[in-house]
Design brief:
The protein is α+β, with helices and mostly antiparallel strands. Helices cover about 30% and strands about 25% of the residues. It has two helices and four strands; from the N terminus they run ββββαα. The chain has a four-stranded antiparallel beta sheet with strand order 1-2-3-4, covered by helices on one side. Strand 1 and strand 2 form a beta hairpin. It is elongated.
Protein backbone atom coordinates (compact mmCIF):
# COMPACT_ATOMS: atom_id res chain seq x y z
CA UNK A 1 0.00 0.00 0.00
CA UNK A 2 1.34 3.42 -0.99
CA UNK A 3 0.53 6.62 0.84
CA UNK A 4 1.15 10.19 -0.19
CA UNK A 5 0.52 13.39 1.70
CA UNK A 6 -0.61 16.31 -0.45
CA UNK A 7 -1.40 19.63 1.26
CA UNK A 8 -2.15 17.81 4.52
CA UNK A 9 -4.50 15.21 2.96
CA UNK A 10 -3.54 11.55 2.83
CA UNK A 11 -3.86 9.77 -0.52
CA UNK A 12 -3.70 5.95 -0.39
CA UNK A 13 -3.34 3.35 -3.11
CA UNK A 14 -4.22 -0.18 -2.01
CA UNK A 15 -4.33 -1.93 -5.39
CA UNK A 16 -1.25 -0.46 -7.03
CA UNK A 17 -3.16 0.70 -10.11
CA UNK A 18 -2.85 4.26 -11.39
CA UNK A 19 -6.58 5.00 -11.08
CA UNK A 20 -7.13 3.41 -7.68
CA UNK A 21 -6.02 6.22 -5.39
CA UNK A 22 -8.45 7.09 -2.62
CA UNK A 23 -8.93 10.23 -0.57
CA UNK A 24 -11.12 11.14 2.39
CA UNK A 25 -12.04 14.79 2.20
CA UNK A 26 -14.99 16.83 3.42
CA UNK A 27 -16.73 13.78 4.90
CA UNK A 28 -16.60 11.96 1.55
CA UNK A 29 -14.34 9.31 0.09
CA UNK A 30 -13.20 9.83 -3.48
CA UNK A 31 -11.42 7.33 -5.71
CA UNK A 32 -9.61 8.10 -8.95
CA UNK A 33 -6.32 9.04 -10.52
CA UNK A 34 -3.72 10.94 -8.57
CA UNK A 35 -4.11 13.95 -10.88
CA UNK A 36 -7.89 14.09 -10.37
CA UNK A 37 -7.66 13.78 -6.60
CA UNK A 38 -5.00 16.50 -6.39
CA UNK A 39 -7.28 18.73 -8.48
CA UNK A 40 -10.13 18.08 -6.04
CA UNK A 41 -7.90 18.93 -3.06
CA UNK A 42 -6.92 22.24 -4.70
CA UNK A 43 -10.57 23.00 -5.44
CA UNK A 44 -11.54 22.18 -1.85
CA UNK A 45 -8.76 24.33 -0.38
CA UNK A 46 -9.69 27.34 -2.53
CA UNK A 47 -13.49 27.24 -2.30
CA UNK A 48 -14.25 25.02 0.70
CA UNK A 49 -16.50 22.72 -1.34
CA UNK A 50 -15.88 19.65 -3.45
CA UNK A 51 -16.59 19.58 -7.17
CA UNK A 52 -19.20 17.02 -8.26
CA UNK A 53 -17.85 13.53 -8.73
CA UNK A 54 -17.23 12.65 -12.40
CA UNK A 55 -19.04 9.33 -12.01
CA UNK A 56 -22.13 11.18 -10.78
CA UNK A 57 -21.99 13.62 -13.69
CA UNK A 58 -21.64 10.82 -16.26
CA UNK A 59 -24.54 8.82 -14.83
CA UNK A 60 -26.78 11.90 -14.86
CA UNK A 61 -25.91 12.56 -18.50
CA UNK A 62 -26.51 8.95 -19.47
CA UNK A 63 -29.75 8.75 -17.49
CA UNK A 64 -31.40 11.78 -19.10
CA UNK A 65 -32.34 11.15 -22.72
CA UNK A 66 -31.82 13.88 -25.23
CA UNK A 67 -34.95 15.68 -26.31
CA UNK A 68 -35.93 14.89 -29.81
CA UNK A 69 -35.76 17.84 -32.07
CA UNK A 70 -39.17 18.85 -33.30
CA UNK A 71 -39.60 21.09 -36.24
CA UNK A 72 -42.37 23.64 -36.42
CA UNK A 73 -42.09 23.75 -40.19
CA UNK A 74 -44.01 21.30 -42.27
CA UNK A 75 -42.48 19.63 -45.22
CA UNK A 76 -44.09 21.13 -48.27
CA UNK A 77 -43.64 19.83 -51.75
CA UNK A 78 -44.25 21.85 -54.86
Amino acid sequence: MRKLIYQGFILTNNKGLTDSWSLSIGGQTRTGSLFELRRQINFYCELGVLPPNRNTIQTKVNATPLKQRTSSRRNTTK
